[in-house]
Amino acid sequence: MELMWLAIGMVGAAYFISEGLKNFKNPNGVNFIEKLDEDDELELLDESEVHDFLGVSKEDAKVLIQEYPNIPHITLNGNVYYPKNKLRQWVLNIGD
Q1: What is the CATH number of domain 42-96?
Q2: Is 46 within 8 Å of 53 (Cβ atoms)?
Q3: pLDDT value for 6
Q4: Whole-Å CA distances, 51 to 17, 33, 54, 56
Q5: What are the extents of the domains in the chain?
Q6: Cβ neighbours around 82 below 10 Å, total
Q7: pTM to 2 decimals?
């Protein structure tokens, strides 16, 4: 059992070392965390998921959506969806 954990640790270390070497001479390269964030750019949130994403209550999210009709959204077949990345940027800039 101990050898299995050792093997898993060695595989993990080899992966992270190889990822680091890929960008060794490329400081503008994309790292593992940035790759995960890229997936958010394409993800759409349903109206019922906005509150969870923003960390507010369902009622507060509904009021936010009603008071700010310019919130980034897409309407498909009568359903409203919010692009996760654009919503994040909009919330960060709302106080400006």
Answers
A1: 1.10.10
A2: no
A3: 92
A4: 38, 24, 5, 5
A5: 42-96
A6: 23
A7: 0.56
